[in-house]
Design a protein that fits this description.
heterotrimer, A alpha+beta, B alpha/beta, C alpha+beta, A: 3-stranded antiparallel sheet, B: alpha/beta, Rossmann fold, Ubiquitin-like (UB roll), 5 domains, 5-stranded mixed sheet, 4-stranded mixed sheet, 17 strands, flat
Chain lengths: 347, 598, 122
């Protein structure tokens, strides 16, 4: 263990911890764009620079390891000057469209500019212009808003391991691109949307079907119903309607798949079944749960009496929980008496 | 101290004294007195010159005339001819130093005299494609000795004792780096060589690889033995096809002779190496980016720690030095740490290779002892500035370095002195600037390079250098404001303080050092809208000096945009400044020097 | 390479080949063939030397290449080493001049002073 002092506050942390981790432990917030503890340290954005007593430069909190007796200042004059300068530089190539930007309210750039009082850029120089890539069905890539933190590339490489996107060009022209700039639909992208979830700005955003502002929604933590993994997610609910899904901490380590991230429209789809249907007079008709169960029990009993348990087979769904699937096979074996049970995900 | 026009050095060594040099000395004094030259010429008795067989020896400075096998009566001739009339008595000169009145060998030329060649020892001497020639000049002897007679720790100790520091830029002590790598834990270790030389105008490493490729192979094998690595990579830029070709030939020859491969010199030590080509990104000269590039990834730097010595190539401990650093190692092993440490200054040992370019007579490659002053390098070795122009500054360290002004020309060259002056040693580029160079323009040139070569990873370097360049453009166009000057400085400091790698951290140096030493030039651009050196086109105006104009019309005929008006033989010509494209054609064409720019 | 002794033996043999001034015999013409030399025209110079030596059937004359000597502004250049003589550096060479050096210097033993570095430096 080593003891370090941050803004005059002493904290004891494990050897090898970063300044950022040490600060977090005592509730000191250091701003970050590119940091994500799931990724290999890369120190790209430099917004988390801090001042270390006796150091020549301003090192970044996210990658700098602590040492015994280290003295750190997280909001010193030099630090604040550097952060303001970095924000100024980012704004110099970022459109100030906050009024209509989909990310407003949850944009890290917006929040930090507010925190450090950076109203607009002081530079009047060149800007990059990119066409927005709308070729993916679920999300868009607007490189004009990108701050090149690189998180999307690293999540795609290191966590999702799809390697669909990377850096293209260098220097001021650096941007995130698909191989040969052919667009997302021509890439190996599997539409998992994990890049979208980590983007601190609106460079990668979900294609929204419902307009909403982040301050209008309630977040509801739930378990994804698509498969048995049990991914944790937050449903963003506006006016009792799910408008976006964000990954949450859990077995999924803040990752989701294409279905979990984007396929939530069925929840409020008019065709969604809400009552059991029974075919009467050649036509499926809404009925009650009591009637439906009576029908099921009646039919099982008569078929079993006529043809025996061997006439039955059970097929369950991957969308059910493990417990539901357990109950289903138990029911097939114990109540009906057959081993013919299967599951859609076995294929 | 009194100043004398001539110094007469008479050898007082045993050899010469026994052949009557003392009488010669007496005769000189006598004749000098007689000719009333005692305020102009001084006789000095010196120690042995080492060429006793040619004694008695007398050398007359400043000409450096080397008289040999003199008799007492010859002194009369020398005084009468040389001292009185200023004519060297060629008949009495040492024969080998004088052949048909001309220097014939490059070694006689001033360019060579202050040089001391360690890293470049074999360049220009051996055929790089014949391994036997390298061996003839002690090649692989150091490797042989290290493997047969020394323990790895002893090798590292010699490198540490020599005081050798990295020749690639930072100047980190080489021996320490070797020791860190040797002590790092790992089942596999690597040796890597940085031959991704990218500074504009620099070609030190290329010359070593082209002229003496085996020295790098031998040295990397020695390093492999010292730190416990059996595999080496040389990362060379693909723009060096001759270097790549010769290095490959050398590797193949070394393998064939068993100097690379299994059980070298009959020992347990095995070492193999291969070349990896770089695609020309400047940032790949940065060690972590270079490692990424060898691994086949995009050449982007990653944060340190962990340092390559702990976690480098393929996450294994890796020793990375540059070509010139390696080129010193075999000589250090053969001639000893003390020999190497005896060259140079207290904290910078040995010699350094520089690529001399710009406004200098002897453009080329030179190797001089550390501690040689900038003046000696530029005037004695470099032969001074062409056309009798005035020296303004020297840019060292490439795009990471700064400009050192004339006031500091007597600074001895070493790592720490250059850093103190806001520049750095870098890999050894040395660009000489004269009165015709505009310092704003020079800062712009280097920044333009970094803007192009920034990898784009971190914000201060990617966006900051771009904005700095835009501000310099503005100043060069005469649109700069005093606020721009202040902003330039704060932005430069942020880039320096907050960038991820060495490229970004040093990118503002050309701007900061010129702001520091040549603020007057920046101010002339900003306040007076004037470029004192007459370089920045937007601030130039071509004007006809009416008194001098002979109304010949040649200027108007030469003007490509027809902006000069007048009637031949009748009126003085006039240049329309708004239309003028500042091509300089009229100024060059005017036979009467009647056009000036300013 | 199995031992230091083996290396030293080879070293001794090789030294006789390359070190004309100390022990070698004959003439060795060494052409600067680094990037600087090649880009300013060292290849035709080298070819001319080889051709001329061959044409005149000169014995004990080797034409070989070397790296950068450092004075890149004087390229193409080559140096002539002969037993018992100081080496001579010829600068700003072309094929014609090279042929003349072979005729005058190598065959007739007369240094072509006008082409030497000394003449240029004047």
């Amino acid at each position: 263990m080593v003891t370090v002092s941050i803004n005059g506050q002493k904290v004891e942390v494990e050897k090898g911890s970063t300044v950022l981790e040490a600060a977090k432990k005592i509730g000191i917030k250091i701003p970050t764009f590119c940091h994500d503890e799931r990724l290999k340290p890369h120190g790209s954005c430099r917004i988390c620079v801090v001042e270390v007593n006796g150091g020549a430069n301003l090192p970044t909190a996210c990658v700098t390891p602590v040492y015994e007796g280290m003295e750190v200042e997280t909001e010193s004059e030099d630090v604040v000057t550097a952060r303001k300068e970095i924000l100024d530089l980012l704004l110099a190539d970022h459109p100030l469209e906050c009024l209509t930007c989909e990310k407003a309210g949850e944009c890290v750039l917006q929040d930090l500019c507010y925190q450090y009082g950076v109203e607009e850029t002081s530079y009047d120089g060149a800007r990059n212009h990119y066409e927005i890539d709308q070729s993916n069905d679920f999300y868009y890539s607007d490189q004009n808003k990108c701050i090149k933190c690189g998180k999307c590339v690293m999540v795609c490489d290191e966590l999702q391991e799809t390697h669909a996107i990377g850096f293209a060009e260098r220097g001021f022209e650096t941007h995130i691109a698909t191989p040969l700039e052919r667009g997302l639909s021509e890439s190996t992208c599997v539409s998992c949307g994990n890049c979208v979830s980590v983007c601190p700005v609106d460079a990668l955003g979900s294609k929204k079907k419902t307009k909403f502002r982040y301050w209008e929604v309630n977040k509801v933590r739930t378990t994804c119903s698509y498969c048995g993994v049990g991914c944790q997610m937050d449903l963003l609910v506006k006016d009792n309607k799910v408008v976006e899904v964000q990954p949450a901490d859990g077995v999924n380590d803040r990752m989701l798949c294409a279905k979990g991230k984007f396929a939530f429209d069925f929840l409020s789809h008019p065709d969604r079944l809400k009552m059991p249907l029974i075919r009467k007079d050649g036509r499926l008709q809404e009925s009650t749960w009591e009637e439906a169960y009576d029908t099921i029990v009646g039919k099982i009993n008569s078929i079993k009496a006529e043809n025996g348990p061997g006439a039955f087979a059970g097929l369950t769904s991957a969308r059910c929980s493990t417990e539901d699937n357990y109950m289903m096979q138990k029911f097939m074996r114990a109540a009906i008496g057959t081993n013919s049970v299967d599951h859609c995900a076995r294929l | 101290m009194e100043l004398y026009r001539s110094h007469i050095l008479v050898c007082g060594g045993t050899g010469c004294v026994s052949s009557d040099s003392l009488k010669i000395e007496e005769r000189f004094k006598e004749l000098i007195e007689k000719n009333d030259l005692k305020d102009e010429a001084k006789v000095v008795k010196t120690g042995c010159f080492g060429l006793c067989e040619a004694g008695p020896i007398v050398i007359v400075y400043p000409e450096g005339a080397f008289y040999s096998q003199l008799k007492v009566e010859d002194v009369d001739t020398i005084v009468a001819e040389h001292l009185v009339k200023g004519r060297i008595v060629t008949d009495l000169l040492y024969k080998e130093s004088y052949q048909e009145g001309e220097m014939q060998s490059i070694n006689d030329v001033g360019f060579y005299k202050k040089q001391e060649r360690v890293a470049l020892r074999n360049c220009g001497v051996i055929n790089p494609e014949v391994i036997e020639e390298y061996i003839a000049y002690d090649g692989y002897e150091a490797l042989g000795r290290v493997l047969s007679e020394m323990k790895p720790e002893e090798v590292i100790q010699i490198v540490k004792d020599s005081g050798l520091r990295g020749r690639g830029g930072g100047g980190f002590p080489t021996g320490l780096k070797w020791e860190f790598t040797a002590k790092a834990e790992g089942d596999q270790k690597y040796i890597a060589c940085n031959a991704d030389e990218g500074d504009p105008g620099a070609f030190m490493d290329r010359s070593v690889l082209e002229g003496d490729p085996h020295v790098v192979i031998e040295s990397m094998a020695i390093a492999g033995y010292a730190v416990g690595a059996n595999k080496g990579y040389v990362y060379v830029r693909a723009e060096y096809p001759i270097a790549v070709n010769r290095l490959q030939i050398a590797i193949d020859q070394a393998k064939e002779m068993g100097l690379l491969g299994e059980n070298i010199f009959g020992t347990d030590f095995s070492f193999d190496m291969e070349i990896r080509l770089g695609a020309g990104a400047f940032v790949c000269g940065e060690e972590t980016a270079l490692i990424k590039s060898i691994e086949g990834k995009r050449g982007m730097p990653v944060p340190r720690p962990p340092f390559p010595a702990v976690k480098g190539l393929f996450d294994k401990p890796t020793l990375l030095n540059n070509v010139e650093t390696y080129a010193n190692i075999p000589q250090i092993i053969l001639r000893g740490a003390e020999w190497f440490a005896s060259i140079g200054t207290e904290k910078s040992k040995g010699t350094k290779v520089f690529a001399l370019a710009g406004k200098i007579n002897n453009t080329g490659l030179l190797e001089i002892p550390m501690g040689t002053t900038l003046r000696e390098a530029i005037y004695d070795v470099g032969g001074g500035i062409p056309g009798g122009k005035e020296f303004k500054a020297v840019q060292t360290g490439g795009p990471s370095g700064g400009c050192i002004p004339a006031a500091h020309i007597d600074t001895p060259i070493d790592y720490d002195n250059l850093i103190e002056l806001g520049s750095m040693m870098g890999s050894g580029g040395m660009i000489v600037l004269d009165e015709d160079n505009c310092m704003v323009d020079i800062a712009r040139f280097f920044l333009d390079f970094t803007v192009d070569e920034s990898c784009g990873k971190c914000t201060p370097c990617r966006d900051g250098t771009k904005r700095m360049l835009e501000m310099l453009d503005k100043i060069a166009e005469g649109k700069g404001t005093p606020a721009d000057l202040a902003k330039l400085e704060t932005l430069a400091k942020t880039i320096k303080n907050a960038s991820l790698c060495g490229l970004g951290q040093t990118a503002p140096n050309p701007v900061l050092s010129t702001l520091d030493f040549f603020m007057d030039e920046y101010e002339a651009h900003v306040h007076d809208k004037r470029c004192p050196a007459g370089v920045c086109k937007a601030l130039l105006n071509y004007i006809v000096i009416e008194d001098k104009c002979k109304k010949c019309g040649i200027c108007a005929a030469k003007c490509p945009v027809d902006c000069i008006s007048g009637t031949k033989g009748k009126t003085v010509y006039h240049i329309d400044t708004d239309k003028c494209i500042k091509c300089n054609a009229c100024l060059e064409a005017c036979p009467f020097d009647a056009i000036k720019k300013g | 390479m199995k031992s230091l002794e083996e290396l030293r033996k080879l070293r001794k043999e090789s030294l006789d080949q390359v070190d004309m001034r100390r022990s070698g015999k004959g003439t060795r013409i060494v052409v600067g063939m680094a990037t600087c030399g090649i880009s300013s025209g060292a290849r035709p110079v080298m070819m001319a030397l080889v051709e001329e030596v061959k044409k005149r059937n000169l014995q004990d004359v080797t034409v070989t290449q070397t790296g950068c000597i450092g004075a890149c502004r004087l390229e193409p250049m080559f140096e002539v080493y002969r037993t018992g003589e100081e080496k001579v550096t010829y600068v700003h060479m072309d094929a014609e001049k090279a042929k003349k050096v072979v005729t005058e210097h190598i065959v007739n033993g007369k240094v072509v002073s006008e082409y030497t570095i000394g003449a240029y430096e004047k």
